[in-house]
């Protein structure tokens, strides 16, 4: 999978869903199954497991990869029961709550949290940052190998500059 440009995290996620699919069908080999078994599995995720719609789509992508690219058995259209979309809005914490959280953190964790929140970084992007990625003069951060293996620039919160230096 990595030879085709997939991230390690994607590989692990796909393997997880492929294992769950095989276990769901009592350890039958995927070559002996097809579209109908995939439909049953995806529908059960929605009906019995009550997974989110994006979780169900990830499982579908994993199985499509397995059948289309690995087993060379295209699945075609699968008429599965989709998971329901969440009906509630996400809760957003107030600026006051953010300040209270920051007050109980040590300096290192404050910097990490503020980078994640203020610069819009993903956790893996933050973990991979190096000193050379910070442009203090222009107030930006270069993020290498982000989602999809792409690089991008993000704003560096000015209040973090002294702590990072």
Automatic annotation (TrEMBL):
InterPro entries associated with the record: CB (IPR044068), DNA_brk_join_enz (IPR011010), Integrase-like_cat_sf (IPR013762), Integrase_catalytic (IPR002104), Integrase_recombinase_N (IPR010998), Integrase_SAM-like_N (IPR004107), Tyrosine_recombinase_XerCD (IPR050090)
GO molecular function, one term: DNA binding
Gene3D superfamilies referenced in this protein's UniProt entry, alphabetically: 1.10.150.130, Intergrase catalytic core (1.10.443.10)
Pfam families associated with the record: Phage_int_SAM_4, Phage_integrase
Tagged with keyword DNA-binding: yes
UniProt KW keywords: DNA integration, DNA recombination, DNA-binding
Domain Tyr recombinase: 88-165
GO biological processes: DNA integration; DNA recombination
The keyword DNA-binding belongs to this UniProt entry's keyword annotation: yes
Domain Core-binding (CB): 1-71
Annotated family: Belongs to the 'phage' integrase family.
PANTHER family according to UniProt: PHAGE INTEGRASE-RELATED, PROPHAGE INTEGRASE INTD-RELATED
Full protein name: Integrase
Naturally occurring in which organism (per UniProt): Escherichia coli
Species classification: Bacteria, Pseudomonadati, Pseudomonadota, Gammaproteobacteria, Enterobacterales
Gene label: intI2
